[in-house]
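Progress narrative, Year 2. Work on Endoribonuclease YbeY from Fusicatenibacter saccharivorans advanced from sequence curation to structure prediction during this period.
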Amino acid sequence: MTLTFENEQDFDLGFDPEEVAAAVINGVLDQEACPYEAEVELILTDPENIRTMNREHRNIDRETDVLSFPMVDYPSPASFDFLETEEGDDCFNPDSGELMLGDIVISVARARAQAEEYGHSLRREFAFLVAHSMLHLLGYDHMTPEEAAVMEAKQEEVLQRLGITRD
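Result:
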């Protein structure tokens, strides 16, 4: 797995965000039985930048905690079979051969506020947001209660397996 990591923030999170992100990304890929090496870009940004991105890409003019920009349009969540067809050819980096999953953008300030609100560590909130966004990159959504329940269970499962609890 290739993780392109960019931290636009100038404060210490109290943990290595690149290391935590890599563990969570690999955990989700393993959980979903992704048969390919994959690449993901992760950007840590501020409330103003994520609000601008939310407005430009989703027409929602407000800050959010995380944005996901999938490169693959799965016919159903984590269905990798179609990648073996001609349709899937554009989903792979021609230089590395890795599956290009997409980009994750996290507002660190929002993650910090949510960690305080929910009574757990910033590390746990950060890991949760990465897991949540990875599931979006793999085609999951939470538009219905049923979809939301599936995502919540998968997020919790990967965090538990990694020992990232509600500390």
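Strands lie at 2-7, 38-45, 66-70, 99-107. The CA atoms of residues 4 and 11 lie 19 Å apart.
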